[in-house]
Fold this protein.
Amino acid sequence: MNSRPRQLEAFDRLLNIMDDLRDKCPWDKKQTLESLRHLTIEETYELGEAILDNNLEEIKKELGDLLLHIVFYAKIGSESGAFDMADVCNGICEKLIHRHPHIYGDVEVKDEEEVKQNWEKLKLKEGKQSVLEGVPKSLPALVKASRIQDKVKGVGFDWEEPHQVWDKVQEELQELHEEVQSGNPEKIEGEFGDVLFSMINYARFLNVNPEDALERTNKKFIKRFQYLESRACALGKTLSDMTLAEMDVFWNEAKNL
């Protein structure tokens, strides 16, 4: 079913359609790299949601939407002679070959961690001044913290045992508690940030993706709260008409669904 000729034919079809749209569609003709940016971010989040839901049909659709954006950017780049789809593909191919010397060279690695360490060392050899240069400044703070910690781990700056990280979490919680008692808003914010950062670090040692974990909790809360709203509506009430004790009954029902 998924033969290489079939895949290449489908990709060529998409490239041809993109040429048509850019030439004939008023909306597509107007788009720029900048105008597409926020739409690409939205599509990426939609793909992430489909992955968390394990909805394979939606994943397929969202991958298509994201692929369209990549092809669109390459088409715009080709119009100014800056780059085209071949440049994009060849660029990532060369990067992958260079950063996988254990596959395309004579380097030997014993496990996944050594691969990641070699990756970061190769990036520094490519001219980067810091391993943290690869962390986009515009990332959401939680994702950025996770990427920062993953990057510095790649060069050996990390805790050795999970219990050390948990001790750090406890230390940061105590410092937050002390600042809450003192009532200084700036110091409270600083310590709260330290607690979050240390918890994200601990998540790494538990092999938990903190972004995925928080989003699953968000989805769980939404589902339970909407059940609460529906039960209240069935009784002809609004939530503001109910006591917390009454709402708690329906909340516990939702937890058992």
Notes: The radius of gyration is 24 Å. The chain has a mean pLDDT of 92. The chain is about 75% helix and 0% strand.
